[in-house]
Design a protein that fits this description.
With 275 residues, this protein is of the alpha/beta class. The protein has a single domain (14-261), classed as TIM Barrel (Alpha-Beta Barrel). It contains 12 helices and 8 strands. Strands 1-2-3-4-5-6-7-8 form an 8-stranded parallel barrel, surrounded by 8 helices. The longest helix has 17 residues, at 201-217.
């Protein structure tokens, strides 16, 4: 006799906020930027804590994000999805396709952060459109009381990436419904007039300033840091999580190392930019 599963016994996985709250150490993760579900699955099985699926600087759309979420679902890693920007409709779509943990880039003010909180919550607390019966987020109404419980089943992180965001970091960290911050040193450096200088002392000091603001507010702060020494410094400074690599950069550097070792060749610059 075949086993018949009760569809109403589905238990949602812990959110990113839950993982951060329960962690007894800094969490480490990487970006999935290539758009491949297979590569995302390889990253998910690496032993890292977080796979961050990038919808901002990567050639991915909703279908690709869905496929990557499905690919990593079998692993204990926590998936986070970065929206291309803080748009209510895009966040609704990401949530409905089953992104429990969303990250919004370029949040510069308390008002923006509050608007993002409203975007991920149903009325009356927010403005998220109600389509859960049609959506993977509720497993097509297989999660009991999904509408009533949705706020506890979703986590929202926002990025501090500009001088304005830096100045507002303490207030943003204190916004109810913002579960975590992520500092983007590359854009932050550019905003500070230090384009390409993520490890400049002023940028590092700014990142650590956000970490302190988060600690004071009780809100976890993460940092993007591909340089191992810098990543370790931020972890020691109190970063709750650090993103230490990306699929595309790992492939680029590793393939270059192979060419250098076996051919003695360095990568040639393209004759013209590819855009």
């Amino acid at each position: 006799m075949p086993i018949r599963l009760n569809p109403f016994e589905h238990t949602p996985t812990p959110t990113f906020a839950d993982r951060l709250r329960e962690a007894d150490r800094t969490l480490f993760g990487m970006w999935s930027c290539g758009g491949s579900p297979l590569v995302a699955e390889i990253c998910a099985g690496s032993g890292l804590d977080i796979v961050l699926i990038d919808g901002e600087h990567s050639p991915v759309g909703l279908e690709s994000i869905l496929s990557q979420l499905q690919a990593v679902a079998a692993y204990p890693v926590v998936p986070v999805v970065r929206a291309p920007y803080g748009d209510t409709v895009i966040l609704k779509q990401l949530l409905d396709l089953g992104a429990q943990n969303v990250l919004v880039p370029m949040v510069d003010s308390v008002e923006q952060a509050e608007a993002m909180v409203r975007a991920v919550r149903y009325p009356p607390q927010g403005v998220r459109g109600v389509g859960s019966a049609l959506a993977r987020s509720s497993r097509w109404s297989r999660i009991p009381d999904y509408l009533a419980r949705a706020s506890e089943l979703v986590s929202l992180s926002v990025q501090i990436e500009t001088a304005d965001g830096l100045d507002a970091a303490a207030g943003i960290a204190a916004v109810d419904g913002v579960d975590a911050l992520l500092v983007g040193p590359a854009d932050l450096a550019a905003s500070m007039g230090l384009l390409g200088q993520q490890n400049h002392p002023d940028v590092v000091a700014a990142v650590e300033r956000v970490i302190v603001a988060g600690v004071d507010a009780g809100t976890p702060v993460g940092v993007n840091a591909f340089d191992p020494a810098t990543a370790e410094r931020y972890a020691a400074a109190g970063a709750a999580y650090v993103l230490v690599g990306a699929d595309v950069t790992l492939l680029a550097r590793a393939s270059e190392a192979l060419a250098e070792r076996f051919i003695g060749a360095s990568p040639e610059a393209p004759a013209a930019a590819s855009y």
